[in-house]
Every structure is written in structure tokens, then in C-alpha cells.
């Protein structure tokens, strides 16, 4: 078996950022997500599958990246930051992506509660 050493494309500060997986995993995937993006929502199960398939080897790091074309994405990102401060980021993350196509201020507030 040949091992391939890859250099990161970009060095990125991820300390203090919400993550799933092993804290010291050799592979770190930084995901820039928009909670109102259909493509981002479709990738959620794939990332969870990667974590399940490679336990202890992959760390998935979340970065907010609300896109201007999605009018509710900034409010969803703000709610996610508030949830993170309460230790509830990942439950809200799941709810926001489950409802990505129904987000509005009232729905975000409802999900955050």
C-alpha cells in the first residue's frame, strides 16, 4: 500500500469552531455552509457517512458562510452561533438543514427554541 501525503490547500484557523469527529483526527474537513442552501443540505448525510466510515480519522469543522442570495441565511447563521454558545449547535444545525427550504424569521425562532 502506498501512502500519499497531501499538503493543505489553505491553512485555516479552526480552533474554537464547532466540529464533529475526533479532535485530533489526521484529516480535517472544513465545510463552509449556508443553512438555506439546498446543495449544502444535501451534503449533510454524506459528511455524516464519512464520519461513520472513518471513526477517529476525520474531523468535520463547520464554518458559517451565509450567501447574500438567501435572505434568511444570515439569521440562521446568527441563531447557530447563539446555539453554539449554549452547547446546542449540532441539534440546531440538523434542524436548520432539515428545514432549509422553509426558513423564515419565525421558523428560525421556532427551531431555535
Automatic annotation (TrEMBL):
Keywords: Disulfide bond, Oxidoreductase, Redox-active center, Signal. GO terms for molecular function: oxidoreductase activity. It comes from the Bacteria. The keyword Disulfide bond applies. CDD domains: DsbA_family. Residues 14-102 form the Thioredoxin-like fold domain. Belongs to the thioredoxin family. DsbA subfamily. This is Thioredoxin-like fold domain-containing protein.
Amino acid at each position: 500500500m502506498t501512502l500519499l501525503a497531501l499538503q493543505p490547500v489553505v491553512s485555516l484557523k479552526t480552533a474554537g469552531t464547532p466540529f464533529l469527529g475526533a479532535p485530533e483526527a489526521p484529516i480535517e474537513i472544513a465545510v463552509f455552509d449556508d443553512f438555506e442552501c439546498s446543495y449544502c443540505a444535501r451534503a449533510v448525510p454524506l459528511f455524516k457517512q464519512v464520519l461513520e466510515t472513518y471513526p477517529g480519522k476525520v474531523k468535520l469543522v463547520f464554518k458559517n458562510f451565509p450567501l447574500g442570495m438567501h435572505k434568511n441565511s444570515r439569521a440562521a447563521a446568527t441563531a447557530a452561533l447563539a446555539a453554539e454558545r449554549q452547547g446546542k449547535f449540532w441539534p440546531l444545525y440538523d434542524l436548520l438543514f432539515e428545514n432549509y427550504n422553509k426558513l423564515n424569521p419565525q421558523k428560525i425562532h421556532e427551531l431555535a427554541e
